[in-house]
Design goal:
The complex is a heterodimer of chains A (336) and B (265).
Chain A lengths: L7 E3 L6 E2 L23 E10 L5 E7 L3 H16 L2 H10 L17 H19 L5 E6 L5 H13 L6 H4 E7 L2 H10 L8 E5 L12 E6 L9 H10 L1 E12 L5 E5 L4 E4 L2 H11 L2 E9 L9 E2 L3 H4 L2 E9 L14
Parallel strand pairs in A: 5-6, 5-8, 6-7, 8-9
Antiparallel strand pairs in A: 3-4, 9-14, 10-11, 10-13, 12-14
Helix pairs in contact in A: 1-4, 1-6, 2-4, 3-4, 7-8
Chain B lengths: L6 E10 L5 E6 L6 H18 L3 H5 L2 H7 L2 H10 L6 E5 L5 H9 L7 E5 L5 H8 L7 E3 L10 E6 H4 L4 E3 L1 H9 L3 E9 L4 E4 L5 E4 L2 H11 L3 E6 L16 E8 L9 E3 L1
Parallel strand pairs in B: 3-4, 3-6, 4-5, 6-8
Antiparallel strand pairs in B: 1-2, 8-12, 9-10, 11-12, 11-13
Helix pairs in contact in B: 1-3, 1-5, 4-5
The chains are: A alpha/beta (336), B alpha/beta (265).
């Protein structure tokens, strides 16, 4: 035995059959005036649960539970995939195109975040097309580990055949409420100069962005976590001079609704009236990149106490909000 | 109950506070589990080292994860060996949590040459989390013939098994028989040894505590042994009603000073 690595082996593994300890109720919740739509006193844990064929619990093992750890781990994994040399080679070879982003060899590219990053890239390229030497100011609300920066940097370089470079052409500011996520973002981007990359520790509703402080902004899966979701979104958009991309969860009602997430946090699902208010108070047009029904989501258990029937009434818009809709004429305007 | 008859659910479990009944379940992906714990702990330890503040690590259940992996104890042993080592080799798997802890814990004049011996599939994540930090390392392999008297070799089975990786008996025997300073961290059964199944579904041969101590002592008479006071109970499914596992840490005589949370054997 000369090589120590040769002495490492994969242990044999078994695939356990899965079970669902709490299937959603078939009906109820989300109806206007429903008795209970938000559970206030809940306790969340991360667990491995084992039951016998008869359903008797035979073992339970907990992991330390904290939403920041879940998020940090999940987004570091995403960043790792964004920095995969094979993915970079794929995008450089095939371009930043819908077909390249639907390639089954890179399923991550077909998921929500990269699809919405495609929208903001269009706006970024428009700004740089007008002034190739400028540094576009981008604000990322709820940036976690700043993984969007990496994909945008890769897409920008590939889409411009190397003409543009994120280090030179982007001034990125990421905001998050998680100190852990920002510590990871800092550690994973320690090589970037401060004029290209900055981070802000703050709750998203609390931030006061001067009007037009940023050229572009993005918020993927975060505006519904704000303490003041509609007002916070309006402030975000008013601080954005050109375009913003949003993942915006909506319900079928005109009035938005507060739900409870799996980590006991309140989550707001926007209603039609909220979207009309956002348009009216920001002067921006809401253009639709895509709509994904919650039924088609890869994670349908995000909301606690939402029934199977209620899931049918939820979905997520991939929005590009813009001051000049004519510049994105192929994207339909959201009918609010 | 045989493994084939067991059904498993892994995820976020939500209960009304104080109640036993589950009213919501969100399945988690593998990257949300041990890799998330390890990466978060690395980030928190890094922040503490660079800022001198415990604000981040103290506000999250990071210490719990470190204790499960016996990181403070192994790091303390390695620190005690600083005076007799120029090189630190960790045989394990994962993203380098012990390495990160060692960066803070090391008390020698300079950090030793560090080599992380792990499956190739670990490299991208290891590099992601360490490449731009100030402490140099090498990820890859290490020739057992290069282990000299100033080499500390950590056989970190405790960490490796989290990712389903087993350190072979041949490696253990080679390292224990060599001239370096070996440090072992592994799971043992309190009474009967045998095959055990982790919650992740990996099968490992788990030796009985007395058998492991006897075997390692025969190979390396100067080894000293401690077990953790609060081992990571439950990571292995119990094979029988009274089945309990322990965390065994072995190290050369003289390296055990100031290790908290352990009992000598």
């Amino acid at each position: 035995m000369a090589s120590l690595r040769q002495g490492l082996a994969r242990a044999p593994a078994v695939d356990f059959a899965e079970f669902d300890p709490a299937p959603p109720a078939p009906a109820g919740a989300l109806a206007p005036g429903a008795a209970s739509r938000a559970v206030m006193a809940i306790a969340a844990t991360q667990e491995f649960l084992f039951v016998s064929e008869a359903g008797a619990q035979i073992h339970r093992y907990e992991l330390p539970d904290h939403s920041d750890i879940l998020n940090c781990g999940g987004y570091i994994d995403k960043l790792l995939k964004y920095r995969d040399p094979a993915l970079a080679a794929h995008i450089r070879a095939n371009g930043v195109t819908p077909a390249a982003f639907a390639d089954p060899r890179f399923p991550l590219l077909a998921t929500r975040s990269p699809q919405i990053d495609l929208l903001i890239l269009r706006a970024l390229l428009k700004l740089l097309g007008d002034d190739p030497e400028r540094r576009v100011r981008i604000f990322d609300l709820g940036c976690t580990v700043a993984e969007h920066y990496d994909l945008l940097a890769l897409m920008l370089e590939a889409a411009s055949q190397g003409k543009f470079d994120a280090r030179r052409n982007i001034q990125y500011a990421g905001l998050d409420v998680s100190a852990l996520a920002l510590a990871a973002a800092r550690a994973l981007h320690a090589d970037l100069p401060p004029e290209a990359f900055g981070l802000i520790l703050q709750e998203g509703s609390a931030v006061r962005i001067p009007e037009g402080a940023y050229d572009l902004s993005l918020s993927i899966g975060v505006i519904h976590n704000l303490k003041e979701p509609v007002e916070g979104t309006i402030r975000l958009l008013n601080g954005t001079s050109f375009a913003a991309s949003l993942a915006c969860w909506v319900c079928a009602q005109d009035e938005g609704v507060w739900l409870t997430s799996h980590h006991a946090a309140p989550m707001y699902v926007f209603g039609g009236a909220d979207l009309r208010r956002i348009e009216a108070e920001t002067g921006m047009a809401l253009l639709v990149g895509d709509f994904v029904p919650e039924r088609a989501s890869t994670q349908q258990r995000h909301f606690a106490e939402v029934s199977e029937a209620a899931l049918e009434t939820l979905g997520c818009y991939h929005l590009l909000t813009v001051r000049d809709p004519a510049a994105f004429g192929d994207l339909p305007r959201l009918k609010t | 109950v045989s493994a084939g008859a067991i059904r498993r659910a892994v995820g976020r479990v939500v209960r009304a506070r104080g109640a036993a009944a589950i009213f919501h379940f969100m399945p988690l992906k593998p990257f949300h589990l041990d890799p998330a714990q390890e990466a978060s702990a690395i980030v928190a330890l890094r922040a503490r080292r660079l800022t001198g503040s415990d604000a981040l690590s103290g506000s999250l259940p990071i210490a719990d994860w470190l204790e499960r992996l016996a990181i403070p104890q192994i790091a303390a042993v390695c620190r005690n060996l600083a005076g007799r080592s120029d090189r630190l080799v960790e045989v394990s798997s994962g993203a380098g949590l012990l390495f990160e802890a060692m960066k803070s814990a090391w008390s020698g004049p300079r950090f030793p040459d560090f080599v992380f011996v792990a499956p190739e599939s670990d490299q991208a994540k290891f590099d992601l989390l360490h490449w731009n930090d100030a402490v140099a390392y090498r990820f890859g392999d290490f020739d057992a013939a290069d282990i000299d008297a100033r080499t500390v070799v950590v056989l970190n089975q405790l960490q490796a098994q989290r990712y389903g990786v087993e350190i072979s008996d041949a490696v253990i025997e080679r390292v224990l028989a060599g001239p370096g300073s070996p440090v072992l961290a592994l799971t043992v059964a309190r009474d009967r040894g045998g095959e055990r199944l982790t919650v992740a579904g990996h099968r490992f041969a788990v030796p009985a505590l007395p058998d492991a101590v006897d075997r390692f002592r025969r190979l390396r008479p100067d080894l000293r042994f401690v077990i953790q006071r609060r081992p990571d109970a439950g990571f292995f499914l119990p094979a029988h009603a009274d089945d309990k596992t322990e965390t065994l840490i072995a190290f050369p005589d003289g390296a055990g000073a100031g290790i908290d949370g352990v009992k000598p054997i």
